[in-house]
Please model this.
Amino acid sequence: MDAFAQARLTRRSLLAGGAAAATLVASPSILRAQTKELVVGGAAGHKPWVESTVVPMFEKKYNCKVIFEGTRSLVNLEKMQKNKGSQYMSVVQMDDPVMILAVKEGLLDPLTPAKAPNLANLLPGSTHMDAMWANYLQPWLGVAYSKTAMKTPPSSWAEMFDPKYKGRIIIPSLQNTEGLPALFVAGLLAGGTLEAVQKDTDAGFKKLAALKPNLLTIYTQQPQAYNLLEQGEAYMIGPAMSSYALERKAAGAPIDLVAPKEGVFAMPSGIAVIKGAPQSELAFAYVNEMLGAELQSKLAGPTFSLATNKAVPKPEGLGADVKIHQIDWANVAAQRNDWIKRWDRDMAI
Model:
């Protein structure tokens, strides 16, 4: 090959290479397409532990990129509704009451043992509505108390009703998800069974009315309520969420959370695959990993939650014999509006 021909070939190669490089620069999506992306919608408060614990493990194991969009459950539902038929999210982590709404609108793809084998290893009550979704963690509800105001921890839900605590008790509003078990606890203390008091709340409402003299306030925002508890102005908050109360304790607040002898209530942290997910296989793999003992054992402690995988022990502070009550969320969805109306009428203070 003469020098002129060689130079011409070299110039052609450079031009071709330059054109290819220009194409990649002009179209970064070509580069991104080389790596599979899984978009997960979840709670904004979950973002730190999802991105520090879940994402690195999953990306390494499945050679993909996970994008976690942190917001509220109802916002995730709106995204799914808006993009029905052309979803960009593949997995959603939402509260169970919102999952029920997603099921009713046909937005979820059912979980199966073939696609998520860890379903077989979950505790009873962890899957819902024919496995349309499952719980991967469950914060628990007990009684939070001021260690400065109370030298002896409460041992029963009934202690909140003791007249000696007049004006010292705080409960959540029924508008808050964690407030619902206040109604069920009251029904249990009135002598009902958990199944019965969730269906018929009349006895619970009548018992709650007896608590009104003891109430300092009914909260809709947790921070203000816990400020009162930490200052010793409030003696107890119940029901109190483990994921909030124990986080405050870990930060140095003079409070603690106990499991009353009647038992605690499990709160919902659901996970599901979105119908029409763009990365269906990865989506089911993500759900399966979240239901597995390996990840749950790493997450239960930092999130102050109960694991749902049978192989993971209960967290410190919850004895092996503590009853864990499950809430019938389908029943809640059907009756909650009526309950809130009666609550507003009966519990005004």
User: Anything to note?
Assistant: Residues 3-26 form the longest helix (24 residues). The chain has 13 helices and 14 strands. The longest strand covers residues 133-146.
